[in-house]
Each structure stands twice: as structure tokens, then as C-alpha cells.
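User: Predict the structure for this protein chain, please.
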Amino acid sequence: MKSLVHPHYFKQLFVRLTWTHRMFILMMIVFFAIYWSILRLTDNAPLKDKAAQDEKISLIKWPACDKIIAGEISDELLSSLSFGYSPAKPNYTSCNGLTRFNGRHPWVSVEEENFPLAYIITTYENYRRLARLLRLIYRRHNIYCVHIDATAPESFASRVHQLVNCYGSNVMLVPPSERVNVIWGEFSVLEANLVCAEMLVRSKKIQWQYVLNVNEKELPLRTNWEMVKAMKALSGSNLVHYQAGNWTKRIPKTKLPFNVTWYKGSFLVALRRDFVVFMLRNPKALAILDALQSSRGRIAVPDEMFFSTLAYNPHLGAPGACLYRTRRISTDPRTMFLIRYVSWKDTKCHTKRWRNEVCLLGLKDLPMMIKAPQLFANKFTPNVQPEAYDCMEYWLIRKIIREQNTHSLDRDFNDTVFAQLYCSTFHT
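Assistant: Here is the predicted structure, written as C-alpha cells:
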């Protein structure tokens, strides 16, 4: 389409302007160029130079939530919690509101800076929950990969793209051409995570130590500092679940040219960087992956077989692989499932609502949840007691603020539960 205004028009107009007008226009151009540069430099400033990093800030207060967390649960109190009100909710209308707490980036300890983490985040439907999750786990020295489901509406993908632009270059978005149509119980669940894992390994921005995978229906129970302490307590092992049982129907029919025993566990993991490189590059790991992929549609939930098989066959050579398998024993803390706080269908479910055999968490779960040692809670949905998510978000942000004010960890946090796991002691 041809321009309505001939380009020579602007040239002639500039020539006709007086010297004073020309100088004014040039000064305005220079002013806005400098102003824009300052904004960019401020956003990318080193952590230690960020304004008011060490300034103490007041704790937000939500009395009704505090009572529920303390276990003082009554029908009257539950009815007083109004959905929509929360002093911890972000302001969705600005980048500052979406990325900061009380107008500031969270304070970060030297220990955290020296131990950067990576996150794989999968999302497909709830922009606001994604925004809140990212705000809680984001630190400028970490790195993040966000995978949008290939079937997500373009309007949703556009909003996520705008959200990612609020952060620095350490938040990466999977390109549209590489997005996966994720279907629960199929290989595509694992495939989407592998796309992000590849992007994280190839990135030269940050030399992250461990990667954790998470989705928009989860909420962290740990601050970033506590996450770092937990990962360091693993002593070089990986946090990969093993579930005892007969999983013959889950095993691919493909015969592999090397000895391997298939194991099932949770798809949600925390992995060493070199374990991730191994699973993406090692010929045996790729053969195991190909066997699972070639069984598409013939075996159920193949994503739960990959990480556990690599982590519990130490002879394959995966870094940090466990030397022994241990059944979950409720009285033995060395066998705890620490990656997620989950209420399964065979346990008491306060909301009486489930999804994929997992109880949807609600307000009555909060007193137990805040005492749990796990890294994340799974799962929350906006249509089932959304106040529970609001209240847990408020609780975690108060912990983050207390870390800034005291420069110390929460007194109830104990990384010993991670250090005493069997795999933390006995691994390659």
C-alpha cells in the first residue's frame, strides 16, 4: 500500500522550520532517547544496585487468612473470605505490578546468586495463574522457559508473550513452530518439557545448577532461597520419584540393545544440569526416549517412565543416579515424596473435587500445607475455592518479605529432609 504522504514532504517541512524549532525537535529526540536508555538500564541493573534492595518493608496483613492458616477454621470464617480480595494479588495492568512485590524486586542472598536455578513452565489456559506463579518464582539470576500449548488460543499466547516481555532475556518463550499439543497421559507431556530442556541447555545466558518443571496449576511452598537450600542438600543427586509396583503394561515393546529395567515415578522432578545434558545427548538415554515415543497410543502415561528409568539404572551412567530403590514407607522420612504436596484420590479430599485422580486443594488443606516439606503444591484451579490459592500466595509472599527484612531463612524451614533421602546419600 502506497504512503499517503510523500517522504519529501517531511524533508521540505524540516527545511522550512526556523533554527529554534529545529533545535527544539532535536533536543526532544535526544531527551527521549536518553530517558528510554535509563529505563532499560534500570531494569537490567545488577542485583546489588537495585533500589532499596536492603530496605525493610512492612508485612502485608490479611487477618482472615492468618486464622485459617493457623487452623482456626469455621464456617463463619470461611464465608468471610471474599474471592477477589487479597493484599498479595498482583496488579495485572503494569509490568511493575506483575513482576515485583510492594514495588520492589525480592531481596536475593549471595547463596542464591551463586546457585542459579532453571524452570520449565507449561501453560495452556489460565493467564492470571501463570502470571502469579512466575512472579513468585522469578529471580533475575535464574532462567525460565515457558511452553504454551499448541492448541491454546492466539489471544492467550499473545498475552503470555506480553507477560514474558515484562521480564528480562532470562525468561524464554518456546517459538510457535516448536510448541506441542499436550494431551494428558500421552508422550506429548514429556515432549513439551524436552523442548524447554533443550532451550535451557543451549542458552549461554546463565549457568544454572538444577532444573525444576512446574505448571500453572501449582504453587510453590518454598521461597527461592529455600529451593536453593533444598537442591544443595541433595548432595549432587536428583529429586526423582520411584513408585513400586507392577508396571508391565507401561513398558514399551521395543527391545533395546542394552540392559535396562523400566521404572515408574512422578513426571515432576528436580534435575542436575549434567543429568539434563545426559538425557538429551547420551545414546542410551535417547534410545529409551525413542522407545517411549514409538509406543505413542499403546502405553499409558509414558512421561512417568522416562526420568525414573534413567535415575534408577545407575549403570547407564546418568549423573546423580540413585544406587538403590526404596518403597515409600510412611514412617521412614528417607523415602518421602518431596517434589510435590499432593492429595491423591485414595486419601481424604476436603473439596471433594478431583482431576486426573488428584484432589483439588482448598482452604481446609492450608494448615497442613504450610507445614509440609515439599517444594510445590499440586493442584489448584480457579473454579474450586480460589481463596485457597490467594491465601497461600499471601503466606509465601510474607515469607519472602521476612527474608528481606531479616536476611535469614524461615525458622521452620528444614533442609535436612532432603539431605537424609536415600538417594542423597547413595548415588553415582
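The two ends are 65 Å apart (CA to CA).
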